[in-house]
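Action item from last meeting closed. Structure (295 res):
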């Protein structure tokens, strides 16, 4: 297997494989990376999936949002060029740069899987995101997302405890300022010299470009989109970290999460990233389950 540049990539692949085992009709797998950014996750999947699914027809796509305001100019052209070089195929027609308010440029029920890595905490409208996910997934499809919840104790971008728990920018800036004065945070690592300016700018970042949600809120949003939501794969991410630290080989298919995994996920949501899996399960049929009596 190709080495993963990030444990997050390896984990997302393992969850997709665990969920779609035996559910890729005709040996075909269509997958979308929603918020593909630099394309590193897509590049890893393009190299790893043919090894896990020899002979399968793989159809990989990605999109990112061009009006979010946090990416450097020209980054998406660099993503395409880097993926072309890494995989030896053209990605120009496989990647799309859209507006935050645009519909996703994929047909209804056209994809087996949608994935994202550290994206959902930046989504402005999770209800719309989940509705688009439900629209593009085939029945039996799955969506896998790794990201920090609002519960997490240390804001992961700035490494400042509880900064994202404050609603107002003044309170956020104060939290950033005082935390970094105590030596906690990324102010010095960013080679900044003006702490006040740094605090104000990053308070602006948290207000405008992050949207942390709770576990319960996201489950409710998924229900509105008629998707089945679970966080039970979350402990597998931490197990994978421990295996990597111990020098043990990576796992590319997980055991089915049980009830204890759900309880562990409730605790781990305060630590770091959680794993949200959304399933498009349309197994209930009223006529099939309650047939009309034969006259």
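Sequence:
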């Amino acid at each position: 297997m190709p080495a993963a540049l990030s444990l997050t990539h390896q984990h997302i692949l393992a969850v997709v494989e665990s969920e779609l085992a035996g559910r890729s009709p005709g040996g075909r797998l269509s997958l979308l990376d929603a918020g593909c950014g630099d394309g590193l996750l897509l590049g890893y999947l393009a190299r790893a999936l043919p090894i896990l699914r020899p002979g399968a027809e793989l159809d990989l796509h990605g999109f990112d949002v061009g009006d979010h305001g946090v990416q450097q100019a020209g980054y998406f052209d660099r993503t395409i060029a880097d993926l072309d070089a890494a995989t030896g195929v053209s990605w120009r027609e496989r990647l799309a740069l859209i507006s935050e308010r645009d519909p996703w440029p994929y047909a209804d029920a056209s994809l087996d899987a949608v994935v994202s890595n550290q994206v959902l905490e930046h989504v402005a409208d999770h209800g719309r995101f989940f509705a688009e996910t439900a629209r593009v997934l085939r029945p039996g499809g799955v969506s896998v997302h790794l990201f920090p919840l609002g519960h997490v104790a240390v804001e992961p971008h700035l490494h400042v405890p509880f900064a994202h728990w404050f609603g107002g920018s003044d309170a956020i800036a104060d939290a950033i300022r005082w935390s970094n004065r105590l030596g906690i945070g990324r102010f010095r690592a960013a080679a900044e010299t003006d702490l006040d300016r740094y605090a104000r700018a990053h308070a602006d970042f948290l207000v405008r470009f992050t949207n942390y949600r709770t576990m319960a809120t996201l489950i409710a949003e998924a229900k509105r989109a008629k998707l089945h939501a679970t966080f039970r794969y979350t402990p597998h991410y931490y197990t994978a970290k421990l295996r990597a630290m111990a020098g043990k080989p990576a796992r590319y298919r997980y055991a089915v999460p049980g009830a204890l995994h759900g309880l562990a996920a409730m605790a781990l949501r305060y630590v770091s990233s959680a794993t949200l899996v959304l399933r498009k399960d349309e197994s209930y049929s009223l006529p099939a389950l309650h047939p009309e009596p034969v006259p």
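Note appended to the action item: The beta strands are 28-34, 57-65, 95-98, 111-117, 137-148, 154-155, 160-161, 228-230, 273-279.
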